[in-house]
Design a protein that fits this description.
- With 307 residues, this protein is an alpha+beta fold.
- The protein has two domains: 131 residues, Beta-Lactamase, CATH 3.30.450; 164 residues, 2-Layer Sandwich (Alpha-Beta Plaits).
- It has eleven helices and twelve strands.
- A five-stranded antiparallel β-sheet has the order 2-1-5-4-3. Strands 7-8-6-11-12 form a five-stranded antiparallel β-sheet, with helices on both faces.
- α9 packs across α10.
- The longest helix is centred in the middle third of the chain and has 18 residues.
- The termini are far apart.
């Protein structure tokens, strides 16, 4: 094999000349590498940021201008949890104007499994995508913590779907998913840990649903999913899948590892039913027991974690 491809300078040259910004941070979050793409996007030359702390050279902000830190910072989360992340944020150009960027963080892990640094790739986000995100947050359509629809938006979608059900008589069902144990963890680990657990749960739930299914936040530790089906067999299977997938999710928080659990209840809406009536048929979620399926239209069922 040609020694050409064994030369580390080749790969450094590739990184230097990529048409996107790339920088590398050490464990103290000092900038150790800053490519030409990062210079072109931000206006800062490499010698101006090398050795500087990340949040000083390239601070990230949310749409309302708040500095992203702790659990809200993708870089900090990648350092802490050792997982790649993707996010849209705002930052400041050297000339002072605010700009939207799409960032991706990648943990740099040594042979012992320790996170020694983080690589960050970023590029300017399209104005359309950032405008949509900003607009959704500003109008209260999105839950700012988890990124799914807010309770207000979820309620509006359910009301509209029930009206449509009365006209079409197509299947419509709800899954109520409660993440267990968060209140017990809060006093010991704080609100930042709860945010991580909720976001991980949302990702797991989304992967268990179809693209056309609706998911929204309903409470501090609860989510509602809306599915266009009236099959109790399908609902019981999906509820069981979500419960199992969440139970297999493991989260690392400052050296401690946790496994989540979820209780899932499903209910089938009836044509002509109002939202208040539908919600009143939802029974309190139990935390023990086995999967249970009930009747057809108007039926209910639940899946609870195994003891």
């Amino acid at each position: 094999m040609s020694p050409f491809f064994d030369d580390p300078a080749l790969y450094r040259s590739v990184l230097e000349n990529l048409p996107i910004g790339v920088y590398v941070l050490d464990r103290e979050q000092h900038v150790r590498f800053w490519n030409r793409g990062a210079e072109q996007i931000t206006g800062y030359l490499a010698h101006e940021v090398m050795g500087q702390v990340c949040d000083k050279s390239l601070p990230h902000f949310d749409p309302e201008g708040r500095v992203l830190a702790g659990v809200d910072c993708s870089v900090t989360t990648t350092f802490r949890e050792g997982r790649a992340l993707q996010n849209q944020v705002f930052t400041l150009h050297k000339q002072g104007h605010r700009m939207a960027v799409q960032i991706r963080t990648l943990p740099l892990i040594d042979d012992n499994g320790l996170v020694m640094g983080v690589a960050v790739a970023f590029e300017e986000a399209t104005s359309e995508s950032m405008a949509e995100t900003y607009g959704a947050l500003m109008c209260g359509c999105l839950d700012p913590l988890t990124g799914v629809s807010s309770r207000r938006m979820t309620k509006a979608v359910l009301v509209e779907s029930l009206v449509e059900l009365e006209e079409t008589h197509c299947g419509l069902s709800l899954l109520r998913i409660r993440i267990l144990g968060l209140k017990e963890l809060l006093p010991r680990y704080g609100a930042d840990s709860i945010a991580v657990f909720l976001r991980t749960s949302v990702q797991t739930i989304r992967h268990s649903l179809r693209a056309e299914d609706f998911l929204g936040r309903w409470g501090d530790d609860e989510f509602l999913a809306m599915l266009h089906t009236g099959s109790p067999v399908k609902l019981a299977a999906i509820a069981d899948l979500i419960s199992q997938q969440i139970a297999q999710s493991e989260i690392s928080w400052w050296g401690d590892r946790f496994r989540l659990q979820a209780a899932v209840e499903w209910i089938i809406a009836s044509p002509g039913e109002k939202l208040e009536e539908l919600l009143s048929r939802m029974k309190p979620i139990h935390t023990t027991g086995n999967a249970a399926a009930a009747g057809a239209s108007g039926g209910t069922g639940s899946v609870a974690p195994q003891g």
